[in-house]
Design goal:
- The chain contains ten helices and 40 strands.
- It is α+β, with helices and mostly antiparallel strands.
- It is 16% helix and 29% strand.
- Strand 36 and strand 37 form a beta hairpin.
- Helix 4 runs parallel beside helix 9 and helix 7 packs across helix 8.
- The strands form eleven sheets. Strands 3, 10, 15, 16, 17, 19 and 20 form a seven-stranded antiparallel β-sheet that branches. A seven-stranded antiparallel β-sheet has the order 6-9-18-11-12-13-14, with no helix packed on it. It has a seven-stranded antiparallel β-sheet with strand order 32-33-37-36-35-38-40, with no helix packed on it.
């Protein structure tokens, strides 16, 4: 259903390839010798040999859920194996287990090149009948292994590879019994993928293989030099022989299953979303606060992780660099173009001839960004799905009269960035934030109104990722969480804890935008209970008296209001009594904010208003006023029960359980003399 401007609308969520089995695997096919399922945290066991209860926690082994006590153990040909961890939403709402690794320059998620899995008690060999079932996901080509171009081994028995997949140096093949008599069962294996295989083998009949439920090989004979030995999964037995994949589920039978049993396994395996998979790449522009956000505070990586979680993507990476010379994507102190007050900026170059900004070309900063984008490998460039601007500082020092010029320049730069990315129809969303508390009152109001105006034009596909950023502290300040009062610090820059919180709050908003733009991976629709705009908004302000206002709130994902700490003292609320942006009237601050009910607040002002209601506007906050961390009115989103599979506290960590702040105003809200 076409709604215009190249946008698509769905009357219902896209169908998923996954199905929900009616029974467990051991109930589906009898006689399972071993069954290991990493779809939920409890598939991994931890201290005390007990199942884990949360993802991203180090375990020791995958629990054998067949009841035969044969746990799947980490395998490493070097001295020490890495500890396995589970990750949520690797294939739809189901997770996987792997061995996360760290290192500079690695695409995320990076997995250990040395560690895989082994089943020492397996009796599988070339001389015995057996069946193996395996579901895995590969997020990236091999990396940091020293043998990155060589194939990955999915299954080996007695040091002999049974099944391999080409890595970056291959041609996308899935190869059964690699060697002189190998059989290529698929030539379309992609860089990122999730697949399921069933291999049924007997010495007399050979091997039959099913790939994602489709028979891909029949009666393939195997004559390895070694007949017996340990079974390895996602490892070839050499020093850096790990496949660097997530293991989802695997099982063994010590017999050649019947066609009926194989069909039952294939039906059960429909729970997994299989096929080619996606990664997300976020491109960051901005100045010093963006640099802190992306490079110093880890907020960009958190944002990518959160967005990948919401769209079910298999990989998540960011392009965010700064330097004194090109290439770079961010530059400290630089606006989109230079300010009249002397601050530089040449992402687009103002020639100073009064020309329309829609004709401006890239300046030195823009050309540096162009070099950084051009340096991306083509396959990574294809992953770039969002442009992120945690950015407004020196642009918020402009005069209010610069509104039209700044808006046109921002749109021009956005169009040039999209052109660098090969986006000719505004498909890639721009994620901007409601300005941080920095700049002049007129400048920050101008900036906020420009962002609001551009976001209102749906053809531009601009998303406001954070609707409130003034609820943050100066960088390095001393904050008392009992009072919400912060002292000291660098007021020009936001604190690291706030940048991380901004990233977590923005993740579902960007996830919604990417799904709407066709960038979903294994998750094609988000629950209606998740935030859609980022927080509750003020919809109406009733002037109850000259000193009291009743503010009506429309909720996003919460259903109640909280007035914590300094919010109760009216922090952030102010009325412009007469005047207008660029010609400000008297600013009257609030001294009290009380919850009336789930959708109404009572605001008490410091002094009486003098002008008629039509000449008064409520701001939250006004200009660069800082509300401070913990001092904003919020909803109660953290208490809203989420559907199965969407417990983000279990999935990503308790820090992700947040209430959404009351949205900052982009423009003042005119007071009303009527209650509704």
């Amino acid at each position: 259903m076409v709604v215009g401007a190249g946008q698509l609308a769905l009357y219902a969520p896209l169908a998923s390839a996954a199905t929900v089995p009616s029974a467990s695997l051991v109930q589906t096919v009898a006689g399972t010798a071993g069954w290991w399922d990493a779809s939920q945290p409890g598939g991994l066991i931890g201290p005390g040999n007990t199942p884990l209860t949360a993802w991203n926690v180090a375990g020791s082994a995958l629990l054998d859920q067949s009841g035969n006590g044969q746990n799947l153990l980490p395998f490493c040909a070097q001295s020490t194996a890495a500890a396995p961890q589970g990750a949520a939403h690797v294939s739809g709402l189901l997770g996987g287990a792997g061995f996360p690794a760290t290192g500079s320059g690695l695409l995320q998620p990076a997995l250990d090149p040395a560690t895989g899995w082994h089943v020492s008690g397996s009796a599988a060999s070339a001389a015995s009948a057996w069946t193996w079932y395996l579901v895995w996901s590969r997020p990236n080509w091999r990396q940091n292994s020293g043998v990155d171009t060589q194939p990955i081994t999915l299954l080996s028995i007695g040091s002999q590879p049974v099944l391999q997949v080409d890595s970056a140096g291959g041609t996308g093949r899935l190869v059964l019994f690699p060697g002189a008599n190998q059989v290529v069962v698929s030539a379309s294996m992609t860089r990122r993928h999730t697949h399921s295989i069933v291999i049924r083998y007997s010495p007399s009949a050979g091997a039959d293989l099913w790939l994602d439920g489709v028979r891909a090989a029949t009666s393939v004979h195997w004559s390895p030099a070694s007949q017996t030995g340990s079974v390895l999964l996602l490892h070839d037995g050499t020093a850096n022989g790990a496949a660097q994949c997530w293991l989802h589920e695997t099982a063994e039978w010590t017999r050649s299953l019947s066609d009926t049993d194989v069909a039952a396994v294939i039906g059960y395996a429909g729970r997994w979303v299989c096929g080619s998979r996606k990664g997300i790449y976020l491109l960051f522009n901005g100045q010093s606060n963006a640099i802190n956000y992306a490079l110093n505070d880890g907020a960009a990586a958190l944002l990518a992780q959160g967005v990948a979680y919401y769209v079910g993507a298999l990989a998540c990476n960011v392009l965010a660099t700064t330097a004194s010379v090109a290439p770079y994507t961010m530059q400290s102190g630089h606006g989109i173009y230079a300010t009249s007050s002397g601050y530089p900026g040449s992402f687009v170059q103002n020639p100073g001839d009064g020309s329309n900004p829609s004709t401006w070309s890239l300046g030195a900063d823009g050309l540096a960004l162009q070099q950084a984008v051009a340096a991306l490998p083509a396959e990574d460039l294809d992953d770039v799905c969002a442009i992120v601007w945690p950015w407004n500082e020196t642009d918020s020092l402009r005069a209010y009269s610069e509104y039209s010029t700044f808006k046109a320049a921002a749109l021009r730069f956005l169009s040039l960035v999209r052109a660098m990315l090969g986006d000719t129809n505004n498909r890639i969303p721009l994620v901007w934030w409601n300005a941080i508390p920095y700049g002049t009152a007129d400048g920050i109001t101008m900036h906020r109104q420009v962002v609001q105006s551009i976001a209102a034009d749906t053809t531009q596909r601009v998303v406001i990722g954070n609707v409130q950023t003034s609820d943050s502290n100066s960088r390095g300040s001393s904050w008392n969480p009992a009072t919400g009062i912060a002292t000291g610090g660098d007021s020009s820059h936001r604190d690291g804890a706030d940048n991380q919180r901004f990233a977590m709050l923005a993740s579902p908003i960007i996830g919604q935008a990417l799904i709407a733009g066709g960038y979903a991976d294994s998750i094609t629709a988000l629950p209606g209970s998740l935030p859609k705009t980022g927080g509750p908004v003020i919809s109406h302000v009733y002037r109850q008296s000259n000193t009291t206002l009743v503010v009506t709130i429309v909720h996003d994902a919460g259903n109640d209001l909280k007035v914590p700490l300094q919010a109760a003292a009216g922090a952030g609320f102010a009325v412009m009594d007469g005047g207008s942006p660029g010609n400000d009237g008297t600013i009257v601050s609030a001294i009290s904010c009380q919850r009336i009910d789930a959708t109404h607040l009572l605001i008490t002002l410091q002094t009486s208003l003098q002008n008629v209601s039509g000449a008064c506007q409520l701001y939250y906050p006004y200009g660069p006023a800082q509300i401070g961390r913990g001092n904003a009115v919020t909803d109660n989103f953290s208490a809203v029960v989420q559907p199965t599979g969407w417990n983000i506290g279990t999935d990503l960590g308790t820090n992700w359980v947040l209430d959404c702040p009351l949205s900052a105003t982009f423009s003042g809200i005119t007071l009303s003399d009527t209650a509704t």
